[in-house]
Specification:
single chain, alpha+beta, Dihydrodipicolinate Reductase, domain 2, Porin, 8-stranded antiparallel β-barrel
């Protein structure tokens, strides 16, 4: 396969990659090659690459695929064996593609984490432009955007449901900064009526993240979440009186989020958060349990992220 050079963000040419499949099903190889190029944001070239091209060989051996990467941008050669049976037959092309992308990205990431190694490579490195293309492909992944669904547990044990958007900026391979905006809502049954609770919030946090195996990356963050809560009473009985209470809320939040297949351009994230109110609102209910946006809160979330 031949392709004309393509440019990424900032006018930098995309890195060039060749992927040679040996003894693999032809349909699986074509699909895996297509997906791997998308995940790496790379340009595929033919099977006769020059010294600017990162070369990948994937040899199928029954239920295993033996991967080898020769990377002239870093002078590294890396290998890995993947069990194709980890995925259903219709998902094996994606499994193989992501394994290829992860192995190449592991080599290219050194251009960011160790751009000037003390020990020189044993083989001549690719020209500067090719190395910069690979480095830029990794740098583009420093921003992650997500759309989330969440469940928020109030201090009094009531549950609200909602969602929002978030962003993660990778400050280094270990450190990250996280921002999000959520809006939750619930109608809580109380005696002779209901209380409609509207609770938008924003948060800012900083944290750490490390790989857990090949496909999971947990991140632990600590920050502040704050917002506004509005509690509207809804009288279901003519003898009941509806009232409204509202105010700002704020408190520290500790969150754990686990990314699945995080090297994929699109991947799922599940999260768990706990916090406590430094500032909150208590909605008093005559003849019923108060609505408490005070004390400890918790939440779970599921998100779809794009890098």
């Amino acid at each position: 396969m031949c392709a004309a050079p393509a440019q990424g963000a900032g006018g930098i040419e995309r890195p060039r990659v060749s992927i040679d499949f040996v003894d693999c099903d032809a349909a699986l190889a074509r699909e895996a090659q297509r997906i791997a190029a998308i995940e790496l944001r790379a340009t595929l070239v033919n099977a006769a690459p020059d010294d600017t091209v990162t070369r990948v060989t994937a040899a199928c051996r029954g239920t295993l695929a033996e991967l080898a990467v020769a990377d002239p941008t870093t002078g590294k050669s890396v290998e890995r064996t993947v069990a194709l049976t980890e995925a259903a037959p219709n998902g094996r092309a994606r499994l193989l593609a992501l394994a290829v992308a992860e192995l190449v990205a592991a080599s290219w990431s050194e251009l960011q984490t160790n751009p000037h190694p003390r020990a020189p490579a044993a083989t001549p490195l690719a020209p500067y432009a090719a190395r910069e293309s690979a480095r830029a492909a990794m740098a583009d992944r420093s921003l992650e955007l997500a759309v989330a669904f969440d469940m928020h547990r109030l201090g009094g044990g009531d549950y609200l449901f909602g969602g929002g958007v978030g962003a993660v900026v990778w400050l280094s391979p270990l450190l990250l900064a996280r921002l999000d905006a959520l809006a939750d809502y619930g109608e809580l049954e109380r005696g002779a009526g209901r209380v409609a609770v509207i609770m938008p919030s924003i948060s800012a946090a900083i944290g750490v993240s490390r790989w857990l195996g090949a496909h999971l990356r947990p991140a632990l963050t600590l920050g502040l979440r704050g917002g506004y809560v509005r509690m509207n009473g809804i009288a279901d009985d003519q003898n009941a009186t509806a009232a409204r209470q509202q105010g700002a809320w704020l408190g520290p939040e500790l969150a754990l989020q686990v990314s699945v297949w995080p090297r994929g351009r699109v991947h799922p994230i599940v999260g768990l958060a706990v916090g406590t109110h430094l500032l909150g609102v208590r909605g008093t209910v005559d003849g019923g349990r108060d609505v408490e946006a005070v004390g400890f809160w918790g939440g779970v979330s599921a998100a779809l992220a794009v890098r």
